[in-house]
Design a protein that fits this description.
This protein is α+β, with helices and mostly antiparallel strands. It has four helices and ten strands; from the N terminus they run βαββααβββαββββ. The protein is globular and about 70 Å long.
């Protein structure tokens, strides 16, 4: 009887390994101490919404955007939010730039934030924040999910249209809204918000954008 054998390939260099290309960094943290600040943030946001002349529906459904100058408020709770945004941006920048991150961050970042209050059935259609390096959301109040499994969930969408068309995408990454949780991601990443449960419960969050100082360059 004759048997066939297959010769093993001779290794002449390093072992081959898959290259993971175009990974997308996403930051998620549940902050200790959030319970100390969330009641104050809730009160300030709802009170400011009543008198903010720029408060308006902004492309969402039953969702009001207000307090677009909130990072300038001289309040301990806002100072705490500013520090948490810095934490997120620092972590994401280091994930992308490694040792070079310290040089970029030390040159300063430009941040803006605003409040969004979702009421009964409130949701937000897919969109991007194309003019920011990083975008994020901090949950002040999650609202009652009711009978829905995904009420108010943040959906991070696959940015590769060709992969979606070829059914090669794993689909959206879904993140549950939890008071004290911050999620951050590249501003170009498409995302949306699932509808808030029907009822009187509110979902309150602080959304933000960050850009690096445009005067910075490696040669400066």
């Amino acid at each position: 009887m004759t048997t066939a054998t297959t010769a093993r390939p001779t290794r002449t260099g390093p072992a081959a390994r898959p290259l993971l290309a175009w990974g997308t960094p996403v930051y998620q943290a549940d902050f200790q101490g959030a319970g100390q600040y969330n009641p104050t943030l809730r009160e300030m946001i709802l009170e400011a919404e009543k008198t903010d002349p720029d408060a308006a529906l902004f492309g969402g459904i039953n969702a009001v955007k207000s307090s677009q100058n909130m990072l300038t408020w001289n309040q301990p709770a806002i100072a705490w939010i500013r520090a948490r945004i810095t934490d997120a941006v620092t972590a994401l920048t280091r994930a992308e730039l490694c040792q070079a991150a310290s040089e970029v961050i030390s040159c300063g970042i430009q941040a803006e934030a605003w409040a969004v209050v979702y009421r009964s059935g409130g949701s937000l259609r897919p969109h991007t924040h194309h003019d920011s390096a990083w975008s994020g959301v901090y949950y002040v109040e999650a609202g009652d999910p009711g009978n829905s499994r995904d009420a108010g969930y943040l959906q991070l969408l696959d940015p590769r249209p060709a992969a979606i068309a070829r059914h090669a995408s794993t689909g959206a990454q879904r993140i549950r809204p939890v008071p004290g949780r911050m999620v951050a991601f590249p501003g170009w990443l498409p995302h949306s918000v699932q509808a808030t449960a029907t009822g009187s419960s509110l979902r309150i969050c602080i959304a933000w954008n960050v850009a690096y100082d445009k005067t910075w360059s490696p040669a400066s």
